[in-house]
Amino acid sequence: MSLLTYDDTVTNGDDIARVLTAKIMPPWKPVDGFGTFRDSYGLNDGDRQMFLDWIKNGMTQGDPADAPDPLPIKDSPWQLGKPDLALQMPAFTPPRAADTYRCFSLDTGLKQSTWINASQALPGAAAEVHHVLLFLDDTNESIALEGKDGKPGYDCFGGPGFTGANAVQSAIGGMVGAWVPGARVHRLDPGIGQLISAGKRIVMQVHYHPNGHPVEDQTSVGFYFAPENSVKHRMLTLPLVNMKFKIPINVPDYPVTADFQVPFFVSGKAILVAPHMHLLGRKIAVNITNPDQSVTPLIRIDDWDFNWQGFYTLDKQIDIAPNSVIHLTTSYDNTDQNPRNPNYPLKEVGWGEGTNDEMCLAFVGIILDNVALVKLLF
User: Domains plus CATH for the chain?
Assistant: First the structure.
């Protein structure tokens, strides 16, 4: 519903009070005190109570002369304006299957290596698209995979189907964007970027979870370039992941964890975090245990909702010291009391790419202090 005007708001006053009281809206999931984030749209208890008191007391209108200017009407779906580079996958209609993973090899047309500081994917068939991941294909091996079955793209259950060193590169330095439900787009801080090398291709992985009758999709992606010669640090994407777990039935709070030990010769800073689970997930947190055993929280979510995910940009960079440990902790509710549980009858659930499977995963965007090390490894 629109809440751009006083009349809009008064009309929906009862519903607003209900969702504010239940803390359903606004859908800001990170818990206060466990990480601070840029562009938070959450409400603290004082702000929430101010709205509730206003509604309870009759929603009196203030002086219209004090109202701010109306927000401009956007005629474009691009959150940051027209991108510097826009690519679109060929038209593809997913089959009637519970989950389809399809990759599309896209030619960037870039004649020189380019730094980007933001990207946005636009699902063409939003009701069918579960998520979108964007990978840099450093060896262009996706060309040989494209269209082998006579249809656009190629099947790519899991990752983008890369092999050897290209697979390692894509896992750590090669993910250059993503879309999940509820995601917002942010630019990286000045001086930080992600590199798209000249002549290399982008692989767009689209996970389809048809909602009724599958429809044709043409998802697009837009990239925003960093100012020329401005990038000093390359952002790498560290995946925290546990793929070896089974969630038993009738357990309302089943824990799963994953750790990453920072090597003794590496130091850097965390700049963003993106937690991810599916429908059984209830809680998720990412913390850093420092060498002195103190703990620095990056994010904590106690009421996970698959429909409201995001890449959360930290309000300030967080130091990652050598020999520190980055922890991912999660819990899952595999009971019939979980209204989001997709499995009836209940069944044991483990790692999987399907919506009805589960994941224990978080991405941490990092920059390394040793720029020479980044150039050597990536």
Answer: 6-66 (no CATH), 85-233 (2.60.120.310), 236-377 (2.60.120.230)
**How many beta carbons lie within 10 A of that of residue 151, not counting itself?**
14
Q: Which of 156-165, 191-200, 318-327 has the lowest mean pLDDT?
A: 156-165
The CA dihedral of 360, 366, 369, 373, to the nearest 10 degrees, is 70
Is the confidence at residue 266, as pLDDT, over 70? Answer: yes
pLDDT at residue 63 above 80?
yes
Confidence category of residue 89, pLDDT binned at 50, 70, 90: very high
Contacts of 20 (CB under 8 A, 6+ apart): 43, 48, 51, 52
* Residue count of the chain: 378
Does residue 131 contact residue 178 with C-beta atoms inside 8 Å? yes
Q: How many Å separate Cα 373 from the centre of its chain?
A: 27
- Kindly report the average pLDDT of the chain as a whole number: 89
pLDDT tens track for 108-160: 999 999 999 999 999 998 888 888 989 989 888 899 999 888 999 998 876 78
CA distance 161 to 241: 18
